[in-house]
What does this fold into?
Amino acid sequence: MPSFNILVLGGDHIGPEVVGEAVKVLRAAEAHPAVSKKNVSFNLDHDLLGGQSIDAHGIPLTPEVVEKAKKSHAVLFGAVGGPKWGMTGALRPETSVLDLRKALNCWANIRPAKVPSPGVAKCSPVKESVVSGTDFIVLRENCGGVYFGEKKETPDYAHDVWGYHRWEIERIARMAAYLAKKHGGAAGPSKITSIDKANVLAVCRLWRDAVAKVHDAEFPEIPLTNQLSDSLALIMVKNPRSLNGIVLCDNIFGDLFSDEAAAIIGSLGFSPSACLAGIPGEEKTTGMYEPSHGSAPDLAPNKANPIATIQSAAMMLRYSCDLDFVADAIDEAISIALDDKSAGGLEIRTGDIGGSASTTEMGDAVVSALKQVLNKIKD
Ligand SMILES: NC(=O)c1ccc[n+]([C@@H]2O[C@H](COP(=O)([O-])OP(=O)(O)OC[C@H]3O[C@@H](n4cnc5c(N)ncnc54)[C@H](O)[C@@H]3O)[C@@H](O)[C@H]2O)c1
Ligand SMILES: CC(C)[C@H](C(=O)O)[C@@H](O)C(=O)O
Ligand SMILES: [Mg+2]
It folds into this structure.
């Protein structure tokens, strides 16, 4: 009987709200006969992270949460941070995210950029004709680079060392190759665009060299191009479709370009992510699944878009639970929930994409569409 232990960490502000909707969708899937007849069950354990953990335990991430996470099949996480705790003091909610990624050795962060339903392409700030058909993945190195380099902080001088070992770059390049093959499907592997600032930074010259060597030796059939980070910022807005495939980034570039990609597809509320410790199928360690967005403390309660977190839960089913058919059903349900009524959709949209639906109404719409989708499954 496939039973999955999932640690649910809502976090702060909109975190628990959006995670609550993802849990609602998981529970609806679990209860549906198409899934329950396969005896799938999710054992959910809830705990605190970030500001909530500071308030309860005095630290943003407790050793107990780390231990629970390591023993789980997956962690479903919302977002942390907010003005109550600040982001410059010694105790910062945000360190919990980095420390948990590191503790789980989740070195690959997969952040897809795709409009989740044809009806919402018009919600993008970019012209619909430019954004339609955009389908790339920002693959972000997640446990190294400037985030984790040696740090010095004094009142008048500070630095964060941006360093990489060749092996750290090689393993993320291999993940890019894995994703390029998956993304391209029967048509053959999609291209990889590797991002650096090799014209200025030594760390980026190593990045470019390590990616090229592992490419030439192990997957020369996959098209690979290098793109400087500044011109990538331009291309992503002007012609995002031209990036379709895998956009391979180090940690800081991946942080920046995943937010830019989210804006282009219409909202941070459409940008899910999976943080993995190995190539899916080859290694089974705890994955961490989280929207790319933050805790959005500027939003009133029940106004956030939960789609990115629901999509992250679908990625969890795909990568940590081998439940691709349920993940596919959730993705289709999201598309139906968002799509125009004239196209057969439910046309439920939150404020970030020009609608007025609440977080819970958006989640309810996905649940209702999911039932329709799962009802169609025979066998
Ligand atoms: N993974 C994380 O926990 C994470 C990620 C990013 C930022 N943060 C933290 O979140 C706090 C706020 O940061 P920020 O404002 O720079 O980034 P943010 O991602 O929280 O918000 C940026 C903008 O996008 C909007 N937004 C974000 N998610 C949304 C959603 N699901 N639905 C609708 N609108 C959404 C917000 O209202 C805001 O206008 C900070 O403390 C930051 O450190 C945490
Ligand atoms: C909160 C912060 C530590 C985090 C990051 O920079 O990785 C966030 O911005 C993200 O993109 O997940
Ligand atoms: Mg970010």
Q: What stands out?
A: The first strand starts at residue 3 and ends at 11. The radius of gyration is 20 Å. The chain has a mean pLDDT of 97. The domain at 125-265 is CATH 3.40.718.10 (Isopropylmalate Dehydrogenase).
